[in-house]
Design brief:
By secondary structure, this protein is α+β, with helices and mostly antiparallel strands. The chain has one helix at about 50-65; strands spanning about 15-25, 35-45, 70-75.
Length: about 80
Amino acid sequence: MSSDVQTATVPSEPQATLEYHWVMTVQTPGGIFNTRAAVVTVPAGFTRAAVFQYVHEQFEADYGSQLTVLFFALQPNQL
């Protein structure tokens, strides 16, 4: 006996996104300090650790991987 099972794809709702403002200061082994700030838009449910990694990778692209993070702040951009 066979059974025909039909499935339907329900259109998904657009995923909600949130805006966060971040600030990070790093120091290189050579003593260079750099502070940057920007706004990042992420899907709802994204973690603080994932945003930190994303921002840190931007600094690593410019200065290499031996960075010391001196400051990191992440806050919702909406007041």
